[in-house]
Design a protein that fits this description.
The structure is a homodimer.
Chain A: H1 8-15, H2 19-26, H3 34-47, H4 53-59, E1 65-70, H5 75-91, E2 95-100, H6 107-118, E3 123-126, H7 134-142, E4 147-150, E5 160-164, H8 166-179, E6 185-189, H9 195-210, E7 220-222, H10 227-240, E8 246-249, H11 252-264, E9 274-276, H12 282-286, E10 293-295, H13 298-311, H14 313-316, E11 322-325, E12 328-330
Helix pairs in contact in A: 1-2, 1-3, 2-3, 5-13, 8-9, 10-11
The first copy, chain A, binds a DNA duplex (16 and 16 nucleotides) through helix 2 and helix 4.
Chain lengths: ~350, ~350
DNA sequence: CTGAAAGCGCTTACAG
DNA sequence: CTGAAAGCGCTTACAG
């Protein structure tokens, strides 16, 4: 497995210093003369030295492991987050450990305990819905495990997080539709208990009213983020409000369902009706026409979250770290000027 | 992080034996008296002992790490494989490391080298398309890294693999459609260079001929496994062969595309036309009507693959391990008796 | 069948 | 600013 097992001692010998000094340089500790530091770095580079993670873990207090605890979420989303964390870890000699925590009740404690025992992570990234699982947060806090949440539903004073402004994003999409001349727009909302879904709904109606459109002309239907619920919601909506010229769904899957219903009713997209989603899922990209949607920089958000963990920034600050990321309005083929124009 | 850092020495003291004996028991080594073994096991259990992975790795020759090298494949598939490997690892104190290898050319060597240096895995699970990436296989073989491939396109004499009989699965689906009275069935095949796609096509036409149906009545169109290609293929097919009553696509995404085209043409599914897919993707389940498809036991296949790695079965045998898994025909709402019946 | 000694490759105190 | 010693918790030879 190891071709040339170069150790820290080899580097020390090569650089003409003690092992301890090499260790200092590698860990960016202070109190090393610059010339010494350079000599060590040069020696390490020449030898192609790579620190042994197991040895560092055993001797020290870090494991160089970052966990991603996730529940039952969109699988593409989970994988995207994994990729972002992985990128950050890879660059810093850390390793990503994805850990599904599907039992939200009793089982999660035993499972988490076993996970932490075989893999004592230096920190965890949390994604919804685990970002808002109070017993889990308490469990981690009790063990002093650093946490960064991605897009938590509720803001918690003590937990670092990265997020986008969901409401502003919904407003941007609504404005996009309005600027295309749409005046009667249906909205398909997500699950009631989903915080982001709430904010999206809020943003939609806020912009509708702000633009002087009539609220009654813009029906709302409730979905559950799944494709089928979007199809059903759109179908009912087109039945009761046949004059709507656009539908905005709170996620891509429901938008895809809405598209299906439009097709079934003989409507063309976007000629007869514009359809917009939210989340920039691969599904929305694969659709035909491709879905206009909102894109979160999931990768960059996940990278930022894990970098806080890796750099120890989290441990250093008193006030909880928090960073807002910009969303992106992806205008694709599923939205076009209103047929009423 | 550690609440009660119970060590092997603690267990030894409690059981009244030497640390070496505890080590023997934990590693299932021979030459331990049964009473001794039981005493050690009891002591370990009472103390809630968990071996320290870092220490075992540093002292021994195992890392307790299993890698999943994957390329650009269906993301749901990747995640399902991860889950299967994770389950097996979790039960045996191993850890899963997913490693995306997206650069199939020069870059993969450097990347893989860095990966193996920070994470010297005890073995890797390969999924398509990496299962058939010769330079990668050579690289791994040169370093004596145990490999298990899941559904490789080509069977390689020296590499262990798990798979399903793709051709038989296609035959089963074809027979399902024929038994519903369909006599004119279109087939949408996958990418030319995809081995499994070939086998599915082969199975389809073999069963068509075997059942006495006319080959000319069963058009074939080429897709690329993406939704849009299925939509285009189906659209052309319905143009040139308006009398077909069923479409069988070589994967779910293309079947979803075909469904879209059917809707756009005012056809009902399954009343006017039956549509079948392959792979049991979440997309196919979400569709409305839900897609009849072929399900591979991806989870079990991934578990089996990683267990070979974990148990060391791979190192012990001379002849390459190989196991065929049974597929499942999932009859859902998208297929029904032919309208010609 | 069992154990005492040495060592894996680092970091932690501690000393200077 | 730098280093010598001890130790992290296991497994590897080796001995008996």
């Amino acid at each position: 497995m190891h071709r040339t097992p170069i150790t820290l001692d080899d580097v020390a010998a090569r650089a003409g210093v003690s092992p301890k000094t090499v260790s200092r340089v590698l860990n960016n500790e202070p109190n090393v003369r610059n010339t010494t530091r350079d000599a060590v770095l040069a020696a390490a580079l020449e030898l192609g030295y790579r620190p042994n993670r197991a040895a560092r873990t055993l001797a020290g207090s870090r494991s160089f492991l970052i966990g991603h605890l996730h529940g039952r979420a969109d699988r593409d989303y989970i994988l995207s987050v994994n990729e972002g964390i992985h990128t950050a870890c890879f660059q810093h000699g850390y390793v990503l450990l994805p850990e599904p925590l599907l039992d939200y009740n009793e089982g999660f404690v035993r499972r988490l305990q076993q996970f932490l025992q075989t893999a004592p992570v230096d920190g965890v990234v949390l994604t919804p819905p685990l970002t808002d699982h109070d017993p889990l947060l308490a469990f981690l806090a009790a063990r002093n495990i650093p946490i960064v949440s991605i897009s938590p539903e509720k803001v918690r004073k003590s937990i670092a997080s990265v997020y986008i402004d969901e409401k502003e994003a919904a407003i941007a999409m609504t404005q996009h539709l309005i600027s295309l001349g749409h005046k009667k727009i249906g909205f398909i909302s997500g699950p009631k208990d989903h915080g982001a879904s709430h904010l999206r709904t809020e943003g939609f109606y806020e912009q509708i009213l702000k633009s002087g459109l009539k609220r009654e002309a813009c029906p709302q239907a409730q979905g559950d983020f799944k494709l089928k619920s979007g199809a059903i919601a759109a179908n009912e909506m087109l039945e009761t409000h046949p004059d709507i010229t656009a539908i905005f769904a709170a996620n891509d899957a429901m938008a895809a369902g809405a598209m299906t219903s439009a097709f079934k009713r003989g409507l063309s997209v976007p000629e007869d009706i514009s359809i917009a989603g939210f989340d920039a899922s691969p599904l929305g990209e694969a659709l035909w026409p491709a879905l206009t949607t909102i894109k979160q920089p999931v990768n960059r958000m996940a990278m930022a979250a894990s970098l806080w963990l890796i750099s120890g920034a989290l441990a250093r600050t008193e006030q909880p770290l928090r960073e807002r990321f910009d969303f992106e309005l992806l205008v694709r083929a599923s939205t076009a000027p209103s047929r009423e124009n």
